[in-house]
């Protein structure tokens, strides 16, 4: 309890070190515009920063297109509606 009370007023102003592979919050993931500490940051998928709702929406549309294309390729390779005739 004494340790938590001692740490309660101690703050770091520096940015925390990010885990490898996670995008930093210093630039928009789509247009690479620098993100300021005093500007709004629009997040997508939990850890991807964007400078505006427009950039975030554009990325969401691109992801939806990729998902549809990927689903179409899977369906072409492995159609589930194949009819199999059984000879008696």
Characterize the structure shown.
A zinc finger (FLZ-type) spans 23-67. Residues 23-67 form the FLZ-type domain. It comes from Urochloa decumbens. GO terms for molecular function: metal ion binding. With 88 residues, the chain is mostly helical. 35% of the residues lie in helices and 7% in strands. It contains 2 helices and 2 strands, in the order αββα. The protein has helices spanning 2-7, 53-77; strands at 42-44, 48-50. Strands 1-2 form a two-stranded antiparallel sheet. A hairpin with a 3-residue loop joins strand 1 and strand 2 (48-50). Residues 10-16 have low confidence and may be disordered.
In short:
Helix content is 35%, strand content 7%. The protein is mainly alpha-helical and 88 residues long. Strands 1-2 form a two-stranded antiparallel ribbon.
The major beta sheet can be summarized as: 2 strands, antiparallel
Shape: rod-shaped
Q: Termini, distance in Å?
A: 79 Å
Tally of strands: 2
Low-confidence stretches: 10-16
Order of H and E elements? HEEH
Specify the oligomeric state: single chain
Q: Within the largest sheet, what's the order of strands?
A: 1-2
What order do the helices and strands come in, and which of them pair?
Elements (H helix, E strand, L loop, with lengths): L1 H6 L34 E3 L3 E3 L2 H25 L11
GO molecular function: metal ion binding
InterPro entries: FLZ1/2/3, Zf-FLZ_dom
Protein name: FLZ-type domain-containing protein
């Amino acid at each position: 309890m004494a340790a938590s009370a001692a740490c309660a007023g101690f703050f770091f102003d520096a940015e925390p070190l990010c885990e490898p592979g996670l995008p930093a919050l210093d630039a928009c993931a789509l247009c690479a515009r620098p993100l300021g500490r005093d500007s709004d940051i629009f997040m997508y998928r939990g850890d991807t920063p964007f400078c505006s709702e427009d950039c975030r929406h554009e990325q969401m549309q691109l992801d939806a297109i990729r998902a549809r294309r990927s689903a179409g390729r899977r369906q072409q390779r492995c159609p589930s509606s194949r009819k199999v005739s059984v000879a008696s």
